[in-house]
Amino acid sequence: MQFDVLTLFPEMFSILDESIIGRAKKNKKIDINIVNIRDFSKNKHNKVDDTPYGGGAGMVMMPDVVYRAYDSLENKENAKVIYMSPQGKKLNQEKVKELSKENHLIILCGHYEGIDQRVLDKIVDEEISIGDYVLTGGELPAMVLIDSVSRYVEGVLNKESIKEESFSENLLEYPQYTRPEVFEGEKVPEVLLSGNHKEIDKWRKEKSLEITKKKRPDLLKEVQNSQIAPL
Q1: Could you report the per-residue pLDDT of 34-46, keeping only the tens digit for each?
Q2: Is CATH 3.30.2000.10 correct for 2-150?
Q3: How far apart are CA 108 and CA 178, in angstroms?
Q4: What is the pTM of this model?
């Protein structure tokens, strides 16, 4: 899968060279191309923003500079362009799965007071938010999007990990345990030591429902029509 990221702060994306995403890049399961919007400024000072028409605080990123950065990308005609914006539709697991089916995503990161609306209207297919709050720029949300979507790309994770994680069936994940068997007087639940996979699966399903009811009862409304009856 190809990710192109348009940003004013390319150095922030070095974190994507680490852990699972970094390994996926090395194994060529995903490709992340970071484009510095500032490189496409024709101003001798590499200026990319200006004061807003009509007045107001802050600066607005200029449409021509952003468009030249976008226009420099290869195969953009077949890509989906996403603008990371607090005004966008909130990112959830369903949207993550949907985006993972794309072959090419172009992610536009705003900064300052945002980007001139004209270029957004011209190139953006969808606006996405990672929550109802405002950040200083779109870089952190872009990294969240890349990380969450990449996990569903074939070969990045094993399928069992994805199947059993939180939100996979609109339920939160069951508790996990590892060695030592006893920690600070607390023992691993006996059923997990039994070797009885049917009972283990039953316990995990019950715990998923229990935890979801306690932490995110709103999710249970979405599973009322499933084969699993809420506790």
Answers
A1: 999 999 999 989 9
A2: no
A3: 41
A4: 0.87
